[in-house]
Amino acid sequence: MNEGINLLDPNKRKGPSVVLARLKTTRTLVMGLLFIVSVTSVILFILVALSPLPALQRQEATLNQNLTLSKTDMVKYALLQERTTDISSLLTKRHTLNQTISLIQSKLPNDISVTALQGDTGVLTITVESPSLQSIDSFLSGLISLVQAKKMFKQISVTELTVDQSSNDYLASLRLVLL
Amino acid sequence: MNNDGWIGKKGFRYWYYRYRDSEYFTLGIVGASIVVCLLLIFTFVIPEISQWFSIQTEVATAQQRISVLQNNINFMNNLNKGTVDNQLQVASQALPPQKDFGLILQSISSAALTSGVALGDYTFPVGNITSTKITPVSGAANQTPGLPVTVIITGSFEKVKRFIAAIENNSPVAQVTSIDGSGKTISLTIEFYEKPFPTLSVTGDTPLTPLSPKQSALLEQLANGQKTTGASSIPQPISSGSAIPLF
User: Fold this and answer.
1) How many CB atoms lie under 10 A from the CB of residue B67?
2) What is the domain extent for residue A66?
3) Is the pLDDT of residue B230 over 50?
4) Is 0.90 exceeded by the ipTM?
């Protein structure tokens, strides 16, 4: 008579016990996985919610506002840096005739004088006068040594060598190609 | 007799007790759990992880910007504004933002005075006067056009050399581009550089660095040069529109 009012399935636990045990294990594993995923979700949510980013953004805004007071000085300073960089670059790139002349002068013997100077940033023509050919030769040798040392000049050529009959002086015109 | 002896409506409780211990129930739980897991992973976990990483990157960037801002504030607080003004004036006279004939004439006169040469005629192209209203340009695209000035000087070779040296060391920055002469009269073409102020976008998070020793030395050298020429006492003209009396 009890069978008539039994609420439970009379066919329960009729499957192989191994399958049921495996199913139970699987169910436990899956429930564990669900738990882990849920906990991870909550942790991530808390991490994102408690991020220091809004506070940092507020701090940045405040600092930016403070710095705005010095904006004019910052522009001046930036201009100063820009100017000095430009000037420095110009000074490095420019070719100074003063150095070239100083170098030529350093090779000039005492009895030689410069009578003419002509040229630009690429080529310089210099005319020297001396009573001694030997001095002119010495001057030339000095300039040749500069060309060999690749210092300032790339090429030197004597364009003219004349004698002034009235003064007995030698005139030499030299063409110097600058590096 | 029927085994399913259930009296009343077959509701949730009936089905629960009916299949609670069967494999279908377990399979259903497993399936539902997997579905919930997948939903959570794809709709919540992955976006949150991605957001967290992006927040971390933003936090790092914000911290870096804050550090730069704080350094900039400290730098600006410690900066001597008067010195910067003076240095900017020195630099602007060395490389004027526009044609500055007053400075050029001052430089030539000073060089002639210190070298001992006699100044002859000198000429320079004034050009388009209205062009002095310069449109600021940015970057290196605008490369310092020079204003060529031709000067005739009279003096010994040594004095001419000193004149060239003085011109090249004085302010504004100049370069002797050509020389032509014989005897004691020499014609020089000098190019005086100018460069308009660029349009600078100064933002607070751009790190400010102090002037390098090289730059400081350069400014000092320029300031000394200007003291020699007296260029610093010249008020800067706004326009070069006036006719320049040539000697």
Assistant:
1) 13
2) 53-93
3) yes
4) no
